[in-house]
UniProtKB/TrEMBL annotation:
Lineage, top ranks: Bacteria, Pseudomonadati, Bacteroidota, Cytophagia, Cytophagales
Transmembrane segments: 16-36, 42-61, 68-94, 106-130, 137-154, 174-190, 202-220
Keyword Membrane carried by entry: yes
Name used for this protein in its record: Putative membrane protein
One Pfam family linked to the record: Caroten_synth
Key words of the record: Membrane, Transmembrane, Transmembrane helix
Thylakoid keyword on record: no
Length: 222
């Protein structure tokens, strides 16, 4: 592979600062807009675009553009999307639930951005923990645990905003167990991938996403 020339440190720092400002605007303004009933419908329409822009930010600061990275990205997308697909059509894996229209275009009754969301969450949590340990299983355990905690924060908000809803009206406990298992599997694949896992924006972006859903848990009174 040809090496990609790196920008000077000053230019890289400036680019990172601009990206962080974009992240604050993206998730800060989004949290405010979704918290205000008179503007909520407009911001809900932007939800798929928010995920796509988050993906572009992730990829824009990704360092390890080897042949293995797009393979991992595709595998993460399809494992996550496939698990949701089975869940929707069988009631197994995560429980008996249905997606609402908020997340945009669907494929086989599952929003396409759901696969992107799985990739983003695994990538961000993996990037945060990748230097913590050399043990792939321990790292996958940490990443999957973090993702399960994020899902716990995200679930009530997702139901309130009609991302999806549970047919029983109650979030089943085994949803979190199966979410952990799927996340653990994708994290192991992430760890085995032969690409640079450093991303200077990852931790900041992950914190912004967690704060976004935490704030909405209070402002939506879910």
């Amino acid at each position: 592979m040809h090496k990609i020339a790196k920008a000077p440190p000053e230019a890289q720092n400036k680019r990172l600062i601009i990206a962080k400002i974009v992240v604050v605007a993206l998730y800060g303004v989004g949290a405010i807009g979704l918290s205000l009933p008179e503007y909520r419908d407009y911001f809900l329409m932007l939800t798929p675009a928010q995920l796509i822009l988050t993906l572009l930010l992730v990829l824009g600061f990704h360092r390890g553009w080897s042949e293995a990275f797009p393979i991992f990205a595709a595998v993460a997308f399809w494992i996550g999307f496939g698990a949701e697909l089975i869940g929707i059509h069988t009631g197994y894996i995560f429980g008996d639930y249905v997606y609402g229209p908020t997340l945009g275009p669907m494929l086989w009754q599952v929003p396409i951005v759901i696969g992107i969301n799985w990739f983003i969450l695994v990538y961000l949590t993996g990037a945060v923990f990748y230097k913590v340990t050399d043990n792939d299983y321990y790292a996958a355990l940490l990443g999957a645990t973090a993702m399960t905690l994020i899902d716990y924060i995200m679930e009530p908000v997702a139901v309130a905003l009609d991302f999806w809803y549970w047919k029983s009206g109650v979030i089943p406990a085994d949803n979190y167990l199966t979410w952990f298992i799927v996340a653990f599997l994708i994290h192991l694949i992430y760890r085995k991938g032969n690409f640079d896992k450093g991303n200077p924006l990852a931790a900041f972006l992950l914190v912004a996403m967690i704060l976004f859903f935490t704030i909405l848990n209070f402002t939506l009174q879910v």
